User: Fold these one by one.
Assistant:
Number 1:
Amino acid sequence: MGVITNDRSQHGVAAASDVQTTVEASDVQAIVLRPRPKPYVGEYVVLRIGDAGQGRQMVRRILPHVAPAEEWWVPSLPGWLGIAFTFEGLKALGVPQLSLDSFPVEFRQGMAARAEILHDWGANAPEHWEYPFGTADVHVALAIYGRNERDLQRVLDLARRAHDDLPQISVVYRMQFGELPEGRNPFGFKDGLHNPHVEGSGPRIRARSADQGRPSSFWAIPTRTRAGPGAGSSGSCATTVPSWPSASSTWMLPRFAATCGRRPRRRRKRSSWPPRWWAAGAAVRPLVLAPDRDNPELGSDRNRNNVFSYADDMKGLKCPFSAHIRRVNPRDALKDEVVAVNLHHFLRRGTNYGPPLPEGVLEDDGAERGGVFLLIGAHLKRQFEFIQSQWVTDGNFISHGTEQDPLIGNNDGDGDFTIPQRPARRRLHGLPRFVTVRGGEYCFIPGLRALRWLADLGSSSA
Amino acid sequence: MATQTATRSESDQTLEKKIQRLREVYATGPEVGKTALEKVLGELTSFASTARARVESAGRTGVRQGKVSELLFIAPFAPGGAARLRALLQLRDGSFDDTDRVGTVHDMRFVFLDNDTKLLFATAYDGEWDPYIDDFATKITDQMDVIFTACEGWPGIRSPKVKDWIVKHQIPAVGWYVAHPDLTVRDITG
């Protein structure tokens, strides 16, 4: 079963642009294609598998509750459950070595081992991460969402029943999350503004944003069948490696991060940080659309809040080049450069945890709050790792030297933020690290048929 | 404080070992070289103890000083490849405006070796090429392929094998010096 193609190609992109994309939504997990409910509550649960047989038993039981993306615009479930596996998790389930070997090196190594490339050093270094992140104990990640607490508990119960009589399956981490008022993130910015549309996945729920010429060509769903988990296997391997019967396996990269709760109390020197406009309340609209004053109405209009381009702001006077929103999704801002922006997109399924920072509070109130950057894509290196290493933690691509992303960069009280202005630009100095990485993992989100394959692993060879 | 002292004496030791090794290998060489070494050794030692951006690895292979990396490879020409590349470079006559778009290339050198049987390609560039190879494959496909199809076995910039091809022919520098290691092309051009 399964068509064998060399999906592990670093250059699937070039070929994919010539292919008419159809996404088999019944085989894709809902978490990939479906926007989270609004409002939402949820919980992440991390499991460790101590025994392959019990692990597969758990997968078998949980399978009926894994939501497919098929009916994402008419949700019929009380909530939904997504399931993903780390490389260690696939090993723990007894996935054959040949299949394991065929996964890309980034996934095999895991996020912690990629720290140098991701600029996860200093306070963000894996040695400071919370257990179990960065250890070999993270095997399965469950993401469970509901519209309210009651729905959430129902789905959590289903998940619990899948493993509570299996002593070798242990819960090693749980984290609750929920939406902040007005859909803001802990910084006060409007959250989740720009998710690209996946062509072939169903009706567009948002107007096309200016950068998305042919969305199908760039990202999330591999358009061809993965052969053998991870593929890369040539046709001949198909006979020895059971094929991974899913066109719809993608990557998920949860990155748990604590945010402004850790605003530093001590400042080594007086700085102009935070600027006045920051204190006055962060924006809830794309800056480039309404540079002079905030516009909550525009910010909450899904038909307008993702329809913008930087074509008439090539000097960065409306939205600074270094602003987080422009760095992580430059849209058409780099159209004259060699970089192919469409290669470097991912789906944003991030969530927030902790209470909102009370109005007017600028110092740390001790509360735990932050965000979970749950990014979904098809290519770890080209998508997450590229954005993190080139656009977030380096400034050369916008001629800003070593200036990092002001929001999620790894600054240590020595960060700069450049604001183009006339007659002279303004530069803020002494930016602290607003976000501290608490942990992160590279996970693989199998399609539903692939999950079945995983669940049946032992039985076919036994 | 104690740690600093330890590190200091450790690096002194390494330096002494390097000097000792240097004297050993020069001892068996020509007398002129040996004398010259003794004359410049004091100066060399003082350079070595000054803090300068050290040479480090640039991605999979090659070296970097500060922000500037080097890449050099020697690959055999495909049949007729030398003539094609020579004609192409003659037309270009030093003009690589399309490469300016890349924004990270300081220079490029094309040298024909061994009676036009091999190409030596050398470049200084900012950062790493590896993360951008997919972008090259998308945005300057033909500009890359028209040059490097001159080489035997060039798989094409869009091929998943292109990185391996480059690395296979690449020869990392043993020495690498950049006058302004912290200035990128973008820093210079603004």
Number 2:
Amino acid sequence: MNLNTVTEIKRPTSADEIRQWRDGYAWLAGGTWLFSEPQQDTDTLIDLDRLDWPALKASAAGLDLAATCRIADLYGFAGPPEWIAAPLLRECCNSFLASFKIWNAATVGGNICMSLPAGPMISLAVALEATLTLWPRGAPPRDVKAVDFVTGNHANVLQRGELLRNIQLPASALSKRFAFRRASLTHLGRSAALLIGTRSARGDGEFLLTVTAATPRPVQLRFERVPSAKDLRQAIDERIPADSYFDDVHGTPAYKRHLTGHFAEQIRAELAPPAQPAKSTKPAKPALSGARI
Amino acid sequence: MNYIVNGKTFSAEPQPGQCLRTFLRDRGVFGVKKGCDAGDCGACTVWLDGKPVHSCLIPAFRAADRKVTTIEGLAPNGKLHPVQQAFLDAQAFQCGFCSAGMIMTVASFNDGQRADLPHALKGNLCRCTGYRAIRDAIHGIGAAEPDVAGEACGASLGNPFGEGIVTGRARYTMDVAVEQLLHLKVLRSPHAHARIVRIGRDAAMKVPGVVEVFTWEDVPRRLYSTATHEDHLVDPDDSYILDNVVRFVGQRVAAVVAETEAAAEAGCRALDVEYEILPAVFDPVAAMEPEAPVLHQKGGEAKGNIYVDIHGEVGSVAQGFREADAVHEMTYSTSRVQHVHLETHGSIAWKDDNGRLHVRTSSQAPFITHQKLCHLFGLFPRNVHVFTERVGGGFGGKQEMISEDLCVLATLKLGRPVKWEFTREEQFIGATTRHQMTTHVKLGAKRDGTLTAIEIRVVSNTGAYGGHAGETLAASLGSPLTAYRCANKKADGYAVYTNMVPAGGFRGYGASQTTFAIECAIDEIAQLIGMDPFAIRRKNMVRPGDWIESVWKDPSDVGFGSYGLDQCLDLVEKALADGNGSRKPDGSEWAEGTGIALAMLDCGPPTEHRSGGVMLLLPNGRYHLAIGSTEMGNGSVTSHRQIAACHLGARADQIDIINADTDLTPYDTGTFASTGTVVAGQAVGLTAAALRDNILEYAARHTGTEPSVWRLEHDGVVSGNNRISLVDLHAAGTKAGHRFEAKRKAYLSPRTVAFNAHGVRLAVHRMTGEIRVLQSVHAADIGRLINPMQCRGQIDGAVAMGFGWALTENMVYDGLGKMVNPALRNYRIPAIADVPHTDVFFADTYDTIGPLGAKSQGECAINPVAPAVANALAKATGVRFPNLPFTPDRIFAKLAFQP
């Protein structure tokens, strides 16, 4: 929609051109959220397009995504075969309520900075143990762990004017086995719960469970080895009290708590057996809604 | 900046915050539609450098120097792109408002996307078709049949405006450029109940571009109802154009008129309103309590907040329950839902050089709107012209006058054209909804299945204003009970004011709500006595020879013009028994169940309803048909041409049609209450028959023969081997002073009845609450099919809307009466992934009351869907879900899973 309160567009070619930050400024990435609601407190959009950040760079270290990487580019990325967790990129793209047309404009960074509980790029970044590089105004860049970035519904650690520059998915995480589960109140709708488990490819090693959408901010549980069902349930209940699940029209807190426990156990069971090389290169085939690809 | 739109290069400077959608429309590219303006519906889809995007989300400046392609530029030189042709062949549209975006999306697909429509089309919402015809188009399945003279009636002819729809040239309400146009926006109340103490307008008037502010002090202090009916007395006069008391969150407080929408919005924000907050009540049961705050004291209320109560009893239910071997008693409730026609409400008003007022609007009832405008503003009817061009969906939502009045107010004051277009959010918070109803049902039955008593108590939440409250309440106590033969029936109904958004007319109109309750209850009592759901319905359903009565003994004008309910049940039973090969997913957590429900409809409202037609034979041998009814995607212009062609032995495309225009067509009450065929269609039939007689009589006079030897055939009159072309006949007649014209009127009485039955087989996941519909079958008894393709399309659309009501849609409010989810990404109408394929069957009937054997069909198909789903869910889980909708979290809560 028209943002009628916006009176100026700045189109810097370097982020340094924006030295002074004031109320009314907003970074413009894909614009797919900004232009979807009135933005009465915004009078200036600062276009990130001309910064021309390369969308994605794969290297031995991992996958480096610019914040401005379009969802469509991420969806189209094919990683090297040893990155057996790479199918998660598409799983998470397909977890958007938004259609592929929106992916042609929307960005990975935009979704992370929106910091909605159901933001699937948050699920992806947290599950794959990403490091986010932030560019504060007038200070050197700083790194934060993806799991620490989102602090609540529509809230994050960004300071005034601070810019998310890139998202680094380490090769170590991309080389893990994974299990993915998601549910929505409608077919292919917004996530009520999106859980991802990972475990090292060798089949021993630590078990990492990431809970998103069901909670206002991502929750990650780390186990040295795959826990028992009982221990997992107990760990979840300790980390996520029953009254702290997210309450919105996309699912009641009680339902989200139930899904979290249900999916967590499925993920645990799926990743508990030692890896079988032939199988491990294939994405898990979840049996549940929203996961039909 | 330089822009390249559909191959044309030009330079322009968009507003800084402007989106590509409005930038294109400002330049006359009207094929780019606004459905939601928030990226959810896809109606504004265009290509940017060949990639599809939602233009409402694209900053206009970013499109500079890139290739923009809209529907107008999809195919060069007036040809059709293969996807446009496929949509035309399959008639993959009804109102057509979503079609441009749908086609631009489909035309961008690769093979993988074509094979995965649930994902690929998730960003395109259609409210009319249920997506079946769209799937057909994508899969290359055509349905449109050739137009053969004399065989128009009963043929699946295409929409005469189809090419305009698929090319983006069809003009909807807002698709015009008007010079000197002013824009109107309203400030809406943040409070559920408040008195307006003061409105400071100085700051607003100082906003550059603001021309005028209107508050309650500036409007005629004249009560009226926004609801439109022929009989103005069936709705309470409880509204002012602008009021000094607001009674729901979202009610209009003031209107600001400005040179631009942006200035009008800024003006609204600059208004300084002081409210005195009043106590509010949201629950209709609480609103009936003596201590509840009272919303209206205007003399039209029955008692306190009870706008109207309706009661009736035939026989004695007390006696009936004494005779019963089993009694079922439960309270059922339905949710508040919105129509979500893709074209929002909106109007443009202007005065011509002679001072006549013209109102271009999106309405199902332009003639009643005309009357109401004259009433409110003290205008002479001849000085006012109200019309529609193409209307992008209605479903009952446009049986209201809620945008025209303010535009007229402003135009009368300012002398300039004024436009007001609702936002999608305003559709949710400031238009109307389906009435939320809570229905207590008590049924008694004997062991052999005979119903001994039916008793219901309905409480309807009409919200802050009472339009349609009485009529929907009466409907809720009517046909759902009439459908069953039972000696003892009783009903009590209450329509209650609350501080909620007003309810209004909505496809199914009260009957939907009670059909849900009763059809669930019938299954419950069947289970109590161990009887099959089909058997108990067959034992008790109304049949020819029965009185068609609910709970009142008064004489009625409803009769069995035809009867096909028995066939409907047989068709659904057989289809379910045959199955469709789809099995429930593997795993013990999936439970499977089958459910059915039936519905009955009186064809047309009990209130007055009338329509008139005019037809002319033109010098070029074609016909002109003027009919007042509105086309909003219901297909009436298609079927009206077919009805006329049938009487005239012509091809449908020989008939030029104009509709819904108070200057150019005779009076019509409005297209609602399933009257497009049985009233307006009747008028067309009578008019066409009269013109046929006129032509044949002149042919006889011209040749000195008897009229009975002549007949119309295609473009001529024929008698034996003699043939005179209509062109020649017209020339001869005109020379001799004959006039080839006819005018007739139709009135709705008597009324016939239509029936529908729906069957659903579904799987439900016991752990996640997910529902997958495995089979959906529908049978309709709607008499002769004037246009089978169109009839099926209407049913597909109504069934999809029924699935939305059952499974996904719900308007959610916070404790202060504010809607929590007024956006399409949070209020979910069915997307293509949510709508199963439905096999549609028709009973073989020919009605003796309706025109050419046809009956009403636009509404009733929605009614049995939700209860069929509920009954299948109950069979699958062993648990009755009495409250709509059945979202997975609610299913989970009721099944009480152990984590």
